[in-house]
Amino acid sequence: MTRTLTGQNTQQLIHEKLIIKAKERLSTTNLSVSEIAYELGFEHSQSFNKLFKDKTNTTPLEFRASFNYRL
């Protein structure tokens, strides 16, 4: 059903939503990557880092560094 509505399977849809939320948190807070990973339900920040890199071709820290914010 999910694939019919979105063109993605359930896991892909969940990952997409997680990455959107992660990008928001990385760009608008000064929480650590580990804190953000935990907030998003990851038991290990390494798993979050791997998913983020796989989906965006950049690490969470590289993504954050692309913003010139002084939080």
Automatic annotation (TrEMBL):
- InterPro entries listed in its UniProt record: Homeodomain-like_sf, HTH_AraC, Tscrpt_reg_AraC-type_HTH
The chain positions of domain HTH araC/xylS-type read 1-66
For the keyword Transcription, the answer is yes
SMART domains, per database record: HTH_ARAC
Q: Which UniProt keywords apply?
A: DNA-binding, Transcription, Transcription regulation
Q: Name one GO molecular function term.
A: sequence-specific DNA binding
The record's section on Pfam families has: HTH_18
Entries under PANTHER family matching the protein: ARAC-FAMILY TRANSCRIPTIONAL REGULATOR, TRANSCRIPTIONAL REGULATORY PROTEIN
- What protein am I looking at? Helix-turn-helix domain-containing protein
Q: Taxonomic lineage per UniProt?
A: Bacteria, Pseudomonadati, Bacteroidota, Sphingobacteriia, Sphingobacteriales
